[in-house]
């Protein structure tokens, strides 16, 4: 990350950022955005022709995105004027060293955290004018999340965890929500476990519930932050196959943070985070 002095409007003390992100995740289990900027040349999803996403409406677009926090040694610049545009249905991998700001970027793009400067459009809407409730309403049914540590609600069963984001989606009726949740659990091979609590499930099973939760509302964008980071290789491989299969079904854009080069290669495009900046990789 960079250490340049603050010149921006707003510097957080950082307190509460993670809590806010966790709260938002528990409430919805999902998140998305819209593209644009220096890295705006994007391939169409699934190997289609190269297209300029500035000419189409990006599903997630960040422009000049900067995040600064107050640290013990003064202002720390975690993200430094990041530009990003992700086309509908596109899969983008973000790689970079631990502490380089990848999770911070995802949290901003999904509207879980506030930038110090710059702008974000998600699913066609600017995030800046929206308060927390407005951002939650924007995410509901349109934005999904999968995290390294699953982040299921421990006091809810698998089915209840998957139902949560559906219940926040105004257009889905109660009976319909249950049908969709059960279909999503069946899709990830856990229909027999829908009454189980997270503690009664293995790590891989918990992540499958989290994937069912993320995809049940048919989101336009899925954010995944090192989704296999807590799983063994074989289990992680199965989780990734599932993630890509469901993404294909949903036609959702995927913004994936990963340390795994093989996984990054499965995406349409790779970006590297370093020194607070985001750059196109080969
Ligand atoms: N709210 C905060 N306050 C202070 N420092 C933070 C805050 N959030 C993140 N950081 C720091 O910013 C850097 C980037 O963090 P993070 O986005 O989690 O990186 P990554 O996901 O790439 O490992 C780290 O050094 C982290 O300690
Ligand atoms: Mg991280």
From TrEMBL:
A GO MF term: ATP binding
Residue stretches making up the ABC transporter domain: 60-282
Q: Which UniProt keywords apply?
A: ATP-binding, Nucleotide-binding, Transport
Compositional bias, Low complexity, is annotated for: 1-22
Q: Provide the residue span(s) of the region labelled Disordered.
A: 1-53
Q: Which Gene3D superfamilies match?
A: P-loop containing nucleotide triphosphate hydrolases
Which Pfam families does the UniProt entry name for this protein?
Answer: ABC_tran (PF00005)
Family matches, as InterPro entries:
AAA+_ATPase, ABC_transporter-like_ATP-bd, ABC_transporter-like_CS, MacB-like_ATP-bd, P-loop_NTPase
> Can you tell me which family this protein belongs to?
Belongs to the ABC transporter superfamily.
Q: Indicate what this protein is called per its UniProt record.
A: ABC transporter
Q: Which organism is it from?
A: Halochromatium glycolicum
The lineage, from the top, is: Bacteria, Pseudomonadati, Pseudomonadota, Gammaproteobacteria, Chromatiales
């Amino acid at each position: 990350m960079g250490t340049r002095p603050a010149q921006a409007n707003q510097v957080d003390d950082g307190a509460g950022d993670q809590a806010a992100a966790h709260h938002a995740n528990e409430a919805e289990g999902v998140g998305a955005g819209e593209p644009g900027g220096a890295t705006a040349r994007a391939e169409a999803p699934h190997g289609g022709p190269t297209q300029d996403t500035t000419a189409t409406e990006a599903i997630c677009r960040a422009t000049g995105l900067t995040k600064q926090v107050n640290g013990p040694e003064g202002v720390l610049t975690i993200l430094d004027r990041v530009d990003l545009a992700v086309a509908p249905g596109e899969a983008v991998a973000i790689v970079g060293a631990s502490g380089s700001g990848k999770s911070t970027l995802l949290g901003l793009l999904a509207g879980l955290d506030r930038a110090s400067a710059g702008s974000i459009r998600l699913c066609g809407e600017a995030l800046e004018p929206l308060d927390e409730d407005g951002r939650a309403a924007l995410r509901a049914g349109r934005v999904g999340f999968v995290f390294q540590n699953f982040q299921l609600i421990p006091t809810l069963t698998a089915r209840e965890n998957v139902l949560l984001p559906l219940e926040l989606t105004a257009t889905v009726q109660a009976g319909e929500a249950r049908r969709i949740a059960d279909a999503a659990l069946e899709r990830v091979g856990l229909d027999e476990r829908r009454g189980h609590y997270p503690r009664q499930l293995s790590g891989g099973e918990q992540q499958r519930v989290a994937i069912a939760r993320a995809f049940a509302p048919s989101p336009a964008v899925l954010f995944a932050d090192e989704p296999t980071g807590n799983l063994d290789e074989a289990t992680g491989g199965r989780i990734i196959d599932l993630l890509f299969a469901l993404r294909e079904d949903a036609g959702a854009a995927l913004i994936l943070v990963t340390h795994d080069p093989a996984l990054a290669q499965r995406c349409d495009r790779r970006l590297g985070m370093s020194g607070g900046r985001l750059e196109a990789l080969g």
